[in-house]
Amino acid sequence: MTRVWPVVGLLLLTIGRAAPVAAAPEGELTWAVHVSLAPTWFDPAETPGVIVPFMVLYALHDALAKPMPGAPMAPSLAESWSVSPDGLVYDFVLRAGVRFHNGDPVAAEDVKFSLERYRGGASATLKARVAAVEVVDARHVRIRLKQPWPDFMTFYATPATGAAWIVPKRYVERVGEDGFKKAPIGAGPYRFVSFTPGIELVLEAFDGYWRKSPAVKRLVFRSVPDESTRLAMLKRGEADIAYAFRGPLAEELRRTPGLTLKATSPTFTEWLTFTEQWNPKSPWADRRVRLAASLAIDRKTINEAEYLGYGRVSTSIIPRDFQFYWPAPAHPYDPARARQLLAEAGYPRGFDAGEIASDLTYGPTVEAVINNLQPVGIRARLRALERAAYLRADQEKGFKRVARIGSAAAGNAATRIEAFVITDGIRSYGGYPEIDALYREQAVERDAKKREALLHRIQQAMHERVMFAPIVEPAFLNGIGPRVDESGLGLITGHLYSAPYEDLRIKPGRR
């Protein structure tokens, strides 16, 4: 067997070793969260190919491997893994002595159960390519693939999916699926205390966490969808960390004494999806109409107004920091050319585009896009939904005409394409046979250069067809109150939220 990480393995294990016994956790930190937390996010099996559930997963649960500070795939519940020379067999050795919050040991049976139970993003892809999950012994699990799959670890052991996040088999079988969401048990640094739907989630430090005991005793996540209310809570000291500010309120936060504006740069892109481009009766079936919409968007102004210039103008739904990214040529801001294309397509006076759907948090960005579309003749209005309802509608392919879509899920170009571009992607509204064929071909190609060429061809086809209208790679602008010594924001490269939670600290004397 060949080690997957022969050079960095010792470094990563050093990062992961349990620290010396620390003082008992003390104090409480409160977040004002920009979305309503949903019980489905307490269960790794239902992770829908977006980053939001990892706000909770990093606290309640743990994975075989996951991104950590300084390590994009750090050994966690698995202390090591290896792959056979033919790429068909992956062996994982579990860390000794690790237990779930209820005292049950984390064992190979739990790993097998968690993967076979997984039904979230990319689950169809994983199940189609995994031949068997075998328990060798209590600390050794073996995953056999049907054919070599170079991206197996990217799909399995990064937040591209929740498949490698482990739940306790015996407990889930005893309480059932609904019971698990009501009282989740994990192996993470914090254990579940209570959940009041639509109001708050309360967690408490788990002093048996293998990496180290958390410094903060209690975490409280309050759902506060209104941005101005989040800022007011931060100013009054009712929240210590508040997520997702933009525009004037972000500027107000930056100017407020005692508060700190913290921008993170996740692997995050947002774009317009033309959900009816496969419907010949829809205006959006015409490439010229889709291109006109893209040319109408003033991305530079949106970035400066909404993200204070911390974001980056985007040319693709693939983040530029992803492996296998192809730098698509930019669509310039060109309203005159947009009007000309609409006229050529048979809409000299424009047309009524109906609603553009968005989750509530990013409604202002969509309003800015709508204000760009209006002068060229594309008349639209905003349909803003709370995040959980928005994600549910999107997974059910419920949006008509146009939707603002975004993702900060980790991975590479292939994982983003699998979720949003190929015909049967979990959040795809359709696809094209030639792109599907290229995707299948790259998935089994073991030569990295050839894979890159195939993935670049897919991205070129996406661009040429104007499947999407990229907007920006947003910055995530957050507020930090005066009690916080370490917020966890930005500790993990590309991660949106506070993490790892066991590293958070309150300033001495401020507990």
Gap from first CA to last CA: 50 Å
Which word captures the global form?
globular
Count, helices: 16
Give the helix level as a range of percent: 25-40%
Largest sheet descriptor: 7 strands, mixed
Low-pLDDT sequence parts? 1-20
Q: Average pLDDT across residues? A: 94
- The tally of beta strands, per DSSP, is 22
Explain the overall architecture.
This protein is of the alpha+beta class and 511 residues long. The protein has 16 helices and 22 strands. The chain folds into two domains: 2-15 and 23-217 and 478-506, Periplasmic binding protein-like II (D-Maltodextrin-Binding Protein, domain 2, 3-Layer(aba) Sandwich), CATH 3.40.190.10; 269-473, Dipeptide-binding Protein, Domain 3 (Dipeptide-binding Protein, domain 3, Roll), CATH 3.10.105. Helix content is 31%, strand content 24%. It has a seven-stranded mixed β-sheet with strand order 9-10-11-2-12-20-13, covered by helices on one side. Helix 9 (287-295) runs antiparallel to helix 11 (335-344) and helix 15 runs antiparallel to helix 16 (448-465). The model is unreliable at 1-20 (pLDDT under 50).
